[in-house]
Design brief:
225 residues, Thaumatin, 5-stranded mixed sheet
């Protein structure tokens, strides 16, 4: 019996891991409609308002983002200018570019959380994404550059700045097809990296854009910090 318990103990401990609390704060001078998947859904946040969600241990493919320019009816149906997730307030799918993304996978290799800010789907609001605990990078990652004001004309859309992959659908920008293993920085990705050095600027930008915290960490996502 003791040997069986010894084998099962790591699994039991992993299953008992606590949910992470994500505190999402809108410091923009305008209303945003926060979105979170796979846990959370969506919530309207006036300037200064906060929303807290519990994200189960082991969650992968997680995203938090701000939607802007939204209008919803009493049933939660409508549209957003940026970050729309299928025309509903309560998101169950990823948002439509452009949208600044907080991405995360919890309790992964060596029980570490992996997280980042990504501009691969473009940019709509500045963002901080910070782990609240020991062993986390202090004050990082963050993306505070004035990207919309400086956005190249060919990437600019109402309310945001698209990534080149979204606009041109070219392998060299998307790191797909013939460029899947050979793509590198481009003029457009360097534009994003210059203004937000902590953030993903193209799909192979891992070395300077992925961050870790110990499993069980709580997180703060701040729009317009």
């Amino acid at each position: 019996m003791a040997s069986i318990l010894h084998l099962l103990l790591p699994l039991l401990l992993a299953g008992a891991a606590n949910a992470a609390i994500f505190t999402i704060t809108n410091k923009c001078p305008f209303t945003v409609w926060a979105a979170a998947v796979p846990s959370g859904g969506g919530k309207q946040l006036a300037s200064g308002e906060t929303w807290s969600i519990d994200v189960p241990a082991g969650t992968t493919g997680g995203r938090v983002w701000a939607r802007t320019g939204c209008s919803f009816d009493g049933n939660g149906n409508g549209r957003c200018e940026t970050g729309d997730c299928g025309g509903v307030l309560q998101c169950s799918q990823y948002g439509q570019p452009p949208n600044t993304l907080a991405e995360f996978a919890l309790n992964q290799f060596m029980n570490l959380d992996f997280f980042d800010i990504s501009l691969i789907d473009g940019f709509n609001v500045p963002m901080d994404f910070v782990g609240d605990g020991a062993g986390c990078p202090k004050g990082r990652p963050r993306c505070r550059g004035d990207i919309i004001a400086q956005c190249p004309a060919e990437l600019k859309v109402p309310g945001g700045c698209n990534n080149a992959c979204t606009v041109f659908k070219d392998d060299r920008y998307c790191c797909t097809g013939s460029a899947a293993n050979t793509c590198g920085p481009t003029t457009y990705s360097r534009f994003f990296k210059m203004l937000c050095p902590d953030a993903y600027s193209y799909p192979k930008d891992d070395a300077t854009s992925t961050y870790t915290c110990p499993g069980g960490t709580n997180y703060n996502v701040i729009f317009c910090p």
